[in-house]
Amino acid sequence: MKKTVALIMTAILALSFAGCGSSGNAASGSSVKTVTGGVLTMATNAYFPPYEYYDADQIVGIDAEIAKAVADKLGLELKIEDMEFDSIITSVASGKADIGLAGMTVTEERKKNINFSDSYATGVQVVIVKEDSDIKSVDDLYNGKKIGVQLATTGDIYCIDDFGQENVEEYSKGNDAVMALVSGKVDAVVIDNEPAKNYVAANEGLRILDTEYVTEEYAAVINKENTELLDAVNKALQELKAEGKLDEIISKYIKSE
Ligand code: ARG
């Protein structure tokens, strides 16, 4: 009996060591542990140009390129998984993805479930309206206007707080909210400034209000347990900043006016 137990224990130990071996990245030269050995699995929601969007069947954009540059520095292969914005934090927190990059705003609430890397960009929540709209500033939204937002984004959270749940329409994608504005289902859309510029350029008759709503910082999200990956990502980001690579990626997608 004792022997059987010992044998089982040995088998379990052997298995758990094998497990470590396959999730460590010894073979690829990287020492950082990831969900799949040698691979940096990134969660995103690829309907957020210029940060992430589809070019044919490829996900491209600022976040995709930053993640690729970070993965290169870590000796990992980048794999991008597209999902609902709402699922990104859950996917990272539950250990399905290693990292989330999605123009994700740093908030205290989100910090309860994941760690944020150092910030790599700034975002501003702005208001898109129809060109002939009587909404001239953020304050005009207080008059019971219907506001379209992307579900679970900071725009969604702030608008519910400021203008009441009954005035906020949540859409699973940012462009669905913009389509609702075009067809007159909502009076305004609150969304991040860079995607807003893209949507306004792609659709006739829309404009962005001059008054900004909220300024925020974007960062990558990482599982709370994997502080080793957090440190490695922050180091890589710092190097990319120092090398001018970060600016290069951002200015490839955002033309300063
Ligand atoms: N910055 C906003 C937030 O964190 C919106 C991000 C939406 N990103 C996306 N890839 N759809 O809530």
Walk me through the structure.
With 257 residues, the chain is an alpha/beta fold. Helix content is 40%, strand content 25%. It is globular, with a radius of gyration of 21 Å. The chain has helices spanning 2-23, 62-74, 85-93, 108-111, 154-163, 174-182, 193-202, 227-242, 245-253; strands spanning 39-44, 47-48, 52-55, 58-60, 77-82, 99-100, 115-130, 147-150, 168-171, 188-192, 206-208, 214-222. Helix 2 (62-74) crosses helix 8. Bound molecules: arginine. Arginine binds next to strand 2.
Question: What's the short story on this structure?
Answer:
By secondary structure, the protein is of the alpha/beta class. It has nine helices and twelve strands. It folds into two domains: 28-120 and 219-253, D-Maltodextrin-Binding Protein, domain 2, CATH 3.40.190.10; 124-216, Periplasmic binding protein-like II (D-Maltodextrin-Binding Protein, domain 2, 3-Layer(aba) Sandwich).
Keywords:
257 residues; alpha/beta; D-Maltodextrin-Binding Protein, domain 2; nine-stranded mixed beta sheet; three-stranded antiparallel beta sheet; 9 helices; 25% strand; binds arginine
